[in-house]
Amino acid sequence: MADITISHLVKTYPGGTERATDDVSLDIADGDFTVLLGPSGCGKTTLLRMLAGLELPDSGSIAVGGKDVTYLPPNKRNMSMVFQSYAVFPHRKVRYNIGFGLSMAKKPKEEIDRKVAWAADLLQLGPYLDRLPAQLSGGQRQRVAVARAIVMDADVLLMDEPLSNLDALLRLNFRSELKKIVKDLKTTTVYVTHDQSEALSLGDRVAVMRKGQIAQLGDPLDVYDAPADRFVGGFIGSPPMNFIKAAVSGDGGALIVGDQRLRAPSLLQSYSSTDVLLGVRAENVAVDTQRSSGDVPGTVLVVEPMGSSILLTVEVEGQTIKVQAPPTFRTSPGSTIWLTFSPNSMRFYDSETAMALVAR
Ligand SMILES: Nc1ncnc2c1ncn2[C@@H]1O[C@H](COP(=O)(O)OP(=O)(O)OP(=O)(O)O)[C@@H](O)[C@H]1O
């Protein structure tokens, strides 16, 4: 069993004024693929490096399989790490690079050969085993780094932005390959990225980090569908979630957006006479050129055909939002269109704290 229990990890770098991780606690089940996601500087690499033993926390603890590893050196933790920079030895052949960790661990040659062949096969590196890294493409070099990590039979696989040096297409292809490989291996994996689409596609769970803390932890689709606060809604999704200033009527029955009154969901009944933020995803706004079927008028500012949809920038009651219209929808800048917010996909946030409203 290689479940991970992270408890109250605090880390401030020497000379730093802010905590790089600020009381982070996280439980990761055996075999789970957990993604740490967040903007630059939010502390995800620091958390990963503390898991690896490359940094020590000021306080808090890390247990793997029930064993406290907080202050163990990296080589005593049975973890493998894949870095963003590949970190392959340039003057050594692919074969040597993949088997490096096993050689260091003084494994028998026969075992090293067998595992290198297995990993090379899995990552389609068989034909390149006798090449030098410089004779490989970026994607192939990244595969070598992954192969080197998986031959180790580690309890935990740690990956720090492993796809960030690849171009967009390669990244997309390798992402799905990586997902399949890690799923087959069933190794507990912690993966750091600032790319929200990578987090959504790869993770069993995603921990969205902000300023050294976990802002939300959950199934990627749940986090996408119901962000815990405005920060998470704005960070996950492309385009980000729309946040529209609104108010609840005095009787709690209506949601007021500018001059428009919409039926308020039952959640809002206990928030009568309160200013709220309405959160709605671009794909959950229906559009029509006719008033009859729409609730709220908007003025089209920008029309961007995306192939499978049309992305509209629309001004609604003095606020700008993004709307994803079907590819057949025809409009032009300056036109008035009618919008309907799908009731089940409306989310509500406190207008001051920007935290999701809960039933009360
Ligand atoms: N070696 C270091 N010395 C001092 N401060 C550091 C060091 N490494 C990171 N920090 C600081 O700690 C905070 C968290 O950094 P960290 O690298 O963990 O963030 P991150 O989310 O991984 O960012 P990125 O995506 O840019 O790598 C930042 O404010 C950063 O400036």
Automatic annotation (TrEMBL):
<dbReference type="InterPro" id="IPR003439">
    <property type="entry name" value="ABC_transporter-like_ATP-bd"/>
</dbReference>
<feature type="domain" description="ABC transporter">
    <location>
        <begin position="4"/>
        <end position="236"/>
    </location>
</feature>
<dbReference type="GO" id="GO:0016887">
    <property type="term" value="F:ATP hydrolysis activity"/>
</dbReference>
<dbReference type="GO" id="GO:0005524">
    <property type="term" value="F:ATP binding"/>
</dbReference>
<keyword id="KW-0067">ATP-binding</keyword>
<dbReference type="InterPro" id="IPR013611">
    <property type="entry name" value="Transp-assoc_OB_typ2"/>
</dbReference>
<dbReference type="InterPro" id="IPR012340">
    <property type="entry name" value="NA-bd_OB-fold"/>
</dbReference>
<keyword id="KW-0472">Membrane</keyword>
<keyword id="KW-0813">Transport</keyword>
<dbReference type="GO" id="GO:0008643">
    <property type="term" value="P:carbohydrate transport"/>
</dbReference>
<protein>
    <submittedName>
        <fullName>ABC transporter ATP-binding protein</fullName>
    </submittedName>
</protein>
<dbReference type="Pfam" id="PF08402">
    <property type="entry name" value="TOBE_2"/>
</dbReference>
<keyword id="KW-1278">Translocase</keyword>
<dbReference type="InterPro" id="IPR047641">
    <property type="entry name" value="ABC_transpr_MalK/UgpC-like"/>
</dbReference>
<dbReference type="InterPro" id="IPR017871">
    <property type="entry name" value="ABC_transporter-like_CS"/>
</dbReference>
<dbReference type="Pfam" id="PF00005">
    <property type="entry name" value="ABC_tran"/>
</dbReference>
<dbReference type="InterPro" id="IPR027417">
    <property type="entry name" value="P-loop_NTPase"/>
</dbReference>
<keyword id="KW-1003">Cell membrane</keyword>
<keyword id="KW-0547">Nucleotide-binding</keyword>
<dbReference type="GO" id="GO:0055052">
    <property type="term" value="C:ATP-binding cassette (ABC) transporter complex, substrate-binding subunit-containing"/>
</dbReference>
<dbReference type="InterPro" id="IPR015855">
    <property type="entry name" value="ABC_transpr_MalK-like"/>
</dbReference>
<dbReference type="GO" id="GO:0140359">
    <property type="term" value="F:ABC-type transporter activity"/>
</dbReference>
<dbReference type="InterPro" id="IPR003593">
    <property type="entry name" value="AAA+_ATPase"/>
</dbReference>
<dbReference type="InterPro" id="IPR008995">
    <property type="entry name" value="Mo/tungstate-bd_C_term_dom"/>
</dbReference>
